[in-house]
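Data card: per-record layout.
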Amino acid sequence: MGQCGITSSKTVLVFLNLIFWAAAGILCYVGAYVFITYDDYDHFFEDVYTLIPAVVIIAVGTLLFIIGLIGCCATIRESRCGLATFVIILLLVFITEVVVVVLGYIYRAKVEVEVDNSIQKVYNAYSGTNPDAASRAIDYVQRQLRCCGIHNYSDWETTDWFKEAKNNSVPLSCCKATISNCTGSLTHPMDLYAEGCEALVVKKLQEIMMYVIWAALTFAAIQLLGMLCACIVLCRRSRDPAYELLIAGGTYA
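The structure for this 253-residue chain is written out next.
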């Protein structure tokens, strides 16, 4: 019965190490996605420390690949030293992922305040020219999120660009994608997106942070299972002198 349990633990552990390799790729993807998306919305969110969870996630993903390699070798060779190192590293990574979750929740709560403090300034800096970074950012967000203005399209009337243009129109990025002949004129409000961008930008950034949080929580749970299986193998190997190696003909470390 004991041998069955230990064999099962080793089998699960080898399988988990394969999952760790897949997890490494997924975590690196999530971290890169956060970086890319932040680059699109960075004008609306000036606190670069928000990227800390993404940086940590990428670092953890890279480390998980190495952990998977160590874990597979230690499990197959049934090295006591290797398995002990595997458990210690997993524990450190688990603690790091708990920190990522905490930071994720902290920065997720700050998103609304940060966007509220910066979005008015970004809209006031709009010039309507493509080389201008603020203008490109606003046009991109309005097209992607299908919104117009801060709270609604009427917010454009208070901007310097609107006052200088004197054509009673908003940027073409406010036009609904289904309207082919839209000119952005406020005399045809039905052609424009009715919803403001502030709430949608906040929602988008909070969703991104939740991706980081859920990724960290999911793989932290998998790592707990990995640590449990490795500990079972270590304990049984230490207590049972008749313990059989996973590979026939293998030797104790």
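Known properties of this structure: Residues 21 and 131 are 42 Å apart (CA to CA). The chain is about 70% helix and 0% strand.

See the next section for split statistics.
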